[in-house]
TrEMBL record:
It comes from the Bacteria. InterPro entries: SOD-like_Cu/Zn_dom_sf, SOD_Cu/Zn_/chaperone, SOD_Cu/Zn_BS, SOD_Cu_Zn_dom. Binds 1 zinc ion per subunit. The lineage of its organism: Bacteria, Pseudomonadati, Pseudomonadota, Gammaproteobacteria, Oceanospirillales. It catalyses: 2 superoxide + 2 H(+) = H2O2 + O2. GO terms for molecular function: copper ion binding; superoxide dismutase activity. This is Superoxide dismutase [Cu-Zn]. Destroys radicals which are normally produced within the cells and which are toxic to biological systems. Belongs to the Cu-Zn superoxide dismutase family. Residues 34-165 form the Superoxide dismutase copper/zinc binding domain. It is an enzyme of class 1 (oxidoreductase).
Amino acid sequence: MLKKILLPLAICYSSSILAGADFPIINNQGKTIGNVAIKQGTEGVLINIKAKGLPPGYHGMHFHRKGDCSDLATFKSAEGHIDPHKKPHGYLNPKGPHEGNLPNLIVSQDGSVEVELYSHMVQLKEGPAKLLDEDGSALIIHANKDDHTSQPIGGSGGRLACAIIK
């Protein structure tokens, strides 16, 4: 009887991850400040971000290699950007961009943001730049604007917020 129940549950869980999932965004104090929803598209992922409590202005944002936000002070536990093909950082770099690149996040004066964007450079579960690999990945929101050229992170500065994608 238990096997009959567990198999359908496993299938439902697996297909929901393939279709998409929601992940909380935390700040450097470990407080949940928002959510990122990521859904698999035909050739990439659809990303919906909703958050509050961020500094107003432009903020670099990237997918990082490891789904680990345990180092609250710096979020360095998420490691560097997803970059399986070892390309330079930046949408404006003639030899880039690498797969972890995302557009800047623009936070309103009240510290809130709600945005939908698409990345064709990553997948949820397939290919070399998959978000849901063995150790997951992380969405990191940085302190400064990404200039889309400078190495290694476009001048984006420190890490303000982190979402574990696992």
